[in-house]
Amino acid sequence: MALVAYRTFSGQVPRMEPHLLPSGAAQQASNCIFTAGVLQSSRDGVYLKDMQSNPVRGLYTEDGLNFYSWPTETRAFRSPVKSDVHNRMYFLNLQEGVLKVASRLSMSPEGPTPLAANSFNVGVPTPLLPPTLELVDRATLADYDNAMLTVSAWWEDAGQIFGQTDVVLQQLTLFKSYQFPAPAKPEKTPETAALRCKLAWVNDSKRIAQITLSAGDPVTSNAFPGAQEYTLRDAGGGQWQVSIDWGIYGTAAYQFTAVNEWDEEGAPSPAAMVRPTYLQDVRITLPAVDMNGYKALKQNRLYRTYGSTATFVGVEAKALGGNQYLDESRSSSVVGLAITTTDYDPPPTGLQGLELSPQGVFAMFKDNQLYLTEPYRPHACSYIYTFAHSIRGVIAGQQAFVVTTADGLYLLAGTNPASMQAVQLPVPQAGISQRAMVDVDGGVMYASSDGLVAVNGAQPSTALSQQLFGREVWRKQYGEILRDASLRLSYHDGHLVASSDAQAKGFVLRLDETVASLATHSQRMDCTFQLPVEDALYYSVGQKLYQFGAGAEQEFYWRGRDEIFTHGEIFGAGFLRSSGPVMLSIWCDDALVYEQLVKPGHFRLPSNMPRCLRMSAALRGKGKVQELCLARSLSELRNG
Predict the structure, then answer these.
(1) Cα–Cα distance for residue pair 639/570, rounded to 1 Å
(2) What's the CA gap between 407 and 387, in Å, rounded?
(3) Nearest-CA neighbor of 498 among 444, 554, 547, 438?
(4) Are 423 and 458 in contact (CB under 8 A)?
């Protein structure tokens, strides 16, 4: 019967003392995987190519064939715009803090970063100045292109009319002032008779309105919007004058937007107001919009209000040339749709992180503010959520954004950014950085100063981290890369991969089996990029690009728990079931007493092996190990 038998292998549990580890657990495990309890070599990264960027700190690919790289840390995403004919990519260089966009057709795979002439700031600038408005008198009446004014005049006394006749109007000011000669008085006209007249507006032989006037007695008419006041007076020399005072028919507010060559429309300018009469159109002069750094301007769109409503609707104004337009509309029934881009601000500068949700919403943060875009409209940064403390990172789940701040963890739940709600989750662990957060099969995991935090739905948990590390061990082992925030988390094929660009230190934690297994690695990684469609994880070292876990077998190292014996034991033989020879090391009371290459099958140990009160065994090699047994003698193994 074997004194020590390893028939199921698993990873490290760093928080536990070596002699308290469960059976099969390791006090040291490096470059190991433990599929179905078997000890197996992990695979090295396979070299793919050298990139132009050196080092590669930002990486992006869609197919695992063409790679885009940046020499500074950069987050990049494919355009969320549906059926994007421009083949755009959106990226945030964390040193610059400016969200950029470029067509992949203008970018060179392998890097370096896109040329400034080929990349643009995301968004459309908001005009800073309102339009300039000027009232212009019309040459025709709105809605009545052929309108004209006719007049008949007469003398009247005590209701009796004398000498009524049509007279010829002389225009003094179009639609505002006219003059006509007094009709001749018949012989029997009383001296007390007064002049009266009847004005008629006629359009294409159809009478529009009729107004009867007496000298010195103004008349108000509502024949046209805004009302008009008509006055008749004696102009002398047998001439009479009709004056028309056109009233204000409403207040109109105007604003305009910029539209770029991708047909993206931004937020509107400040509004300008004007109070026209029915006789007036509005001439609009648009100030220039500074598009420097942004995609070029295609056109401006003009909006205005009508009547008592505050809604801005599109105006099909007549282009006068340059940046001037003429608005001749009188009602919203002849114009376009209501403005929808009121809050379509461009993303701010100084950004510190970027994430994209499955619903096409970009999330970006700066200090303690989280900015969200409209779904599938990256140029429209419409929503701002403010947190009590600075944001450390954000990652997208299926139906929510997980946000870590300097004081804890928040869930921003909902599919539409307009109706999302921020809920603080009951864990006090603050995040480290954006790079120390990762999506793990629909859940989220992030690194804190106290350990790893797993978030599934709205349920955060530190149970796995407490089981493996505990706070003190976590800080002792990874304190340096926690303090400099170089710890990076990635996810691949059920494995959480921790790495750093500052040190050759990290671990691989398998999460897709019943019991999580932990093994360390010593690969420094400048950056990583996960490509789910290819089930691949890529990383860079300097300018060299690798695919994680796709290369040759690495040499594993696995050291089991300390076995404790009350009276001491002497080991004389062993049995190994493996795919090939491995190096076996045996410690006795913390001293290395045996190290030899062992082939599969039974084997003898030296006759001078010391008696052990505390013993552990380690294996180093390649391939697989299914079983290791150690006993006093071969016969004991064969009989057991």
Answers:
(1) 18
(2) 10
(3) 438
(4) yes
Residue 92: pLDDT band (50, 70, 90) is very high
- Here the tokens at position 577 are 């079931």
Largest CA distance in the chain: 159
Which amino acid makes up residue 12? Q
Distance CA 405, CA 420 (A): 18
CB 429 within 8 A of CB 406: no
Both structure tokens of 473: 């061990």
User: What is the model's pLDDT at position 35?
Assistant: 86
Please provide the DSSP assignment of 35-69 as one string: GGG-EEE-BPPEEEEE-SSSS--EEEESSSSSEEE
Kindly report each contact of residues 424-427 with a partner whose C-beta sits within 8 Å and lies 24 or more positions away, as own/partner.
425/455, 425/458, 425/460, 426/460, 427/453, 427/460, 427/462
Say if residues 31 and 41 touch (Cβ distance below 8 Å).
yes
Alpha carbons 330 and 278: distance in angstroms, whole number: 8
pTM: 0.87
**78, 89 in Cβ contact below 8 A?**
yes
What is the rounded average pLDDT of the residues 563-583? 94
Q: Which of 130-139, 323-332, 498-507 has the lowest mean pLDDT?
A: 323-332
Q: Which two tokens stand for residue 93?
A: 């260089």
| pLDDT for res 2 | 76
What is the number of other CB atoms lying within 10 angstroms of the CB of residue 161? 12
Q: Are 180 and 167 in contact (CB under 8 A)?
A: yes
Q: What is the pLDDT of residue 533?
A: 86
For 367-394, give one letter per residue: b (16+ CB within 10 A) or e: eeebbbbbbebbbbbbbebebeeebbbb
What is residue 6's predicted lDDT score, i.e. its pLDDT? 94
Cα–Cα dist 56/50, whole Å: 10
Nearest 5°: phi and psi at 535? 50, 50
Closest CA to 216 of 185, 181, 240: 240
Q: Cα separation of 546 and 231, whole Å?
A: 90
Q: Is omega for the bond preceding 112 within 30 degrees of 0, making it cis?
A: yes
Burial grade of 173 (CB within 10 A; 0-12, 13-18, 19 or more): exposed
